Structure formats: C-alpha cells, structure tokens
Amino acid sequence: MPHRDDPAMIPTMTPATAPAANEVPALRLSPPPFAGDVALSRIWDALPLARVVGGAVRDALLGLPVADIDLATPLAPEAAAEALRAAGIKVVPTGLAHGTVTAVVDRRGFEITALRRDVETDGRHAVVLFTEDWRADAMRRDFTINALSLDRDGGVYDYAGGLGDLKAGLVRFVGDPATRIREDYLRILRFFRFQSRYGRSPPDAATREALRAGIPGLARLSVERVWMELRRILSAADPVDGVALMAELGVLPAVAPELSAAPLAALRDAGAPADPILRVAAMLDADPAGFAERLKLSNDDRDRLLRLRATPAPKPADDDAALRRLLADYRRDDLIDRSWIAGAPERLRQRLVALPQPVFPLMGKDVLALGKAPGPAVGRLLYAVRAWWLAGGAVADRSACLAELARQACVPSPSAQDGS
Ligand code: ATP
Ligand code: MG
C-alpha cells in the first residue's frame, strides 16, 4: 500500500511560517468562523496548519448549525497524533490506515485526516497516498461545495469553485461526474443527499446522465449504506425536488422500489415535520416489515414504521369520544403522524394534543377482589369492561367501571365497599 506513513518520510513542518505561503485564500471571513470554539482552538494550537474541511466549512458559510468539525492536515497521521499528544490532547487512532485520528477535547471528537490523493479506486474504496498538497485533497472530494477548506484566520480556500456553487445552490461534482461516480458509486446517493439539502438549481445534462448511467453500480452498496443515505436524504427540510429527481432518473426505484416519491409533496405542503420515518410511512407501497427487514432498519426505526402503519388515521369528522377511543389504544404521536399522512387539517392535531390521555381505571386485581379465581376469565372480564368503557368514549371513571364490572360478573356492585 502506498501509504506514506513511514516516520522517516514525514516532512518537518515549521508551524506558522510556511503554511502554503504561496496560497491565497479565496475569501477571508472576519471574524473567523469557530473563533470562539475553545476546544478547536486547542487543536489549532497543536496543529496550526490544520484546516477545517468538508461539511463544517460549507455549513458555516451558509450560517447553518455545525455538528461535527472535521479537519485536515498536511502532516502524516502519526506526526499529527504526536503533535496533539505533545499538547496534552487525547488521540484515538480511529482510522490510521486511512490517515484519520480522532482528537478528543472537552469530550468532543474531532476527526483529523492527513491530506490524501487517490491512487486507485474500485467503485467504492480508494487506495490513498498521503500528501502535503491541499489542492489534491480537495480534488478527491465529491462535490465542489464539500471541497472548501478553512484556516484558523478565517481564510477560505476554494480549489473547485465551491463558493460560487454554494451561492447558486448548485451541487456539482469535482471533475467529470461520470468518472467520479465510477470511482465510488456511493456518490450517486450522496449527490441526492446534498441536492435535497442545498440544491436550488437542477444538475446539468452531464451530471444527470452520469447519475443515470451509474445506477447498475449501486448494487455494490450494502443495504445498510443505502438506508443510511436514504434516511439522510429524507431528513432534509425539503427533499421533494431531490427525491422527484431521484425517481425520474431511476435511482429511487433502483434502491427502494417500495417507495414512491409522490406523497412527499403533500406532506411538505401540509407543513409536516422533516421526519424520515414519517415520510417513509407515507411513501411506502409495500409491506413495512419486509421493507424494514430488507434495508436492515434499526430496531427503533423499524418499530416506529410498523406502529405508524398499524395506527388508524384519525378523521376531522371524529368527535371527542372517537378521538379518546383512539388515544386509549394508540400513541398520541403516532396518531398525529397518521393525521399528517392522511392530509388532515391542523385543527385535528390541536384537538389530539388537547385531549387528556384516557387511562382505563381497572386492573386484574379489581376482578380478583370480586372473588373470581385467577385465570383467563379475569382477562376476558376486564377486556369486556374496557370495551364498554371505550364504547362510552373512554370517560367512565373508576367507580362507574367497577359497577359495570360487577354487572358483567353477575355479582353485587362493589361500589359501596370501594373506598377509592
Ligand atoms: P453532513 O453534514 O451530511 O455530514 P459532510 O459534508 O460532512 O455532510 P460527510 O459524509 O460527513 O459529509 O463527509 C465529510 C467530507 O468528506 C465531505 O464533505 C467530502 O468532502 C468528503 N467525502 C465524504 N465521502 C466522500 C466520498 N464518498 N467521495 C468523496 N468525498 C467524500
Ligand atoms: Mg459530516
């Protein structure tokens, strides 16, 4: 492997002097983004030549919240780790072979990766060579808006035209789209992740054609990967156009033939939350259990999808008794989600939120207290009284339910003895 991780080959860096002296940032932001980030400052103290890269730069420029800050450094990974440790920073060798270490400061992890260039690709993974060349590192990144880097002084370096594309809302591959997709077919789905989030212009003809032509390569991706990307795409504030394009180009049917794009627009227009599982529940034209199994959804995602699909849709015409019945049997959140899918008006959700949670006031021991022997009959009686309670709109209180229990059990009403 042509990793340049032999310490003998690590160049000696003189911090602060030659940080790409011949390189001029395309833009200098003042104040520098993240200037108040104390943890990041400690990393920059240890690695003055490091730059923030990828999504954090893009989102900072857009004024969006930044969750993860990734950095790149012209130092080889071992040298970067050494400099961090020398500054008293904990280093976890999370991906040394790919050039990545994670620095942990104030319990936050920062991924710091050596600059790389690809020397070989196989449609998903690349063999990389470490380099000191920022431009080479930018050119191996997927999209121009993801290829920006930011130094400590607020200098933004733009090797691929990302600043202009960010302004235009254009998700554009770095280099030739067909080539970049053949290097790594995951980039097809990544395209739709970023198009759904940042795209305000449609892709050009060459990009569309490359996305379409790459579809057979999607079969190389694991289903976990596909679902991870699909989930991200469907988490965007407004994925309607991005997913419509995915469907039009044949990418959606290739990765998730169970999903149709059409219901997304109605959900958006109704103001439904940007919730990927709610969206899948609306888009799914197939058995949800089979879908969850095929794409290996997490247990939480699967359970929620199955629950959503099994929950009836509350209707605007339902009176309060009908809504209380639903609330007695189903989760309030699921009923609200169903109302989004059904296109119900906001007023229905307000009513669902305002109604108190009905709780059936009897338990098995109330049946036993009547002198009934433990056994299946206890459950049957309780079930029958609960059915009566539901039929009445789930409002009967404990003493009314006890009276009904006594009536159904053919024993004298216990209400006289019951103190509660
Ligand atoms: P997000 O906010 O969704 O995390 P991100 O830009 O941080 O967006 P990541 O998947 O975390 O996306 O990747 C970080 C960066 O690494 C990207 O911005 C991009 O520069 C580069 N990158 C990641 N995956 C690829 C890939 N498959 N091909 C090329 N570059 C990639
Ligand atoms: Mg990221």
How would you explain this protein's 3D organization?
- With 420 residues, this protein is of the alpha+beta class.
- It has 4 domains: 1-174, Beta Polymerase, domain 2, CATH 3.30.460; 185-310, cca-adding enzyme, domain 2, CATH 1.10.3090.10; 313-354, no CATH class; 364-411, no CATH class.
- The chain is built from 21 helices and 10 strands.
- The protein has helices at 38-46, 55-61, 77-86, 134-139, 162-168, 177-183, 186-198, 205-213, 223-233, 240-249, 251-255, 263-270, 276-283, 288-294, 299-310, 320-329, 332-341, 346-354, 364-368, 376-391, 398-409; strands spanning 27-28, 51-53, 70-73, 90-95, 100-105, 108-114, 116-121, 126-130, 148-150, 155-158.
- The strands form 2 sheets. An 8-stranded mixed beta sheet has the order 1-10-9-2-3-6-5-4. Strands 7-8 form a two-stranded antiparallel sheet.
- A hairpin with a 2-residue loop joins strand 5 and strand 6.
- Helix 6 runs parallel beside helix 8 (205-213) and helix 14 (288-294) runs antiparallel to helix 15.
- The termini are far apart.
- The model is unreliable at 1-19 and 416-420 (pLDDT under 50).
- It binds adenosine-5'-triphosphate and magnesium ion.
- The site of magnesium ion (MG) has 2 residues, from loops.
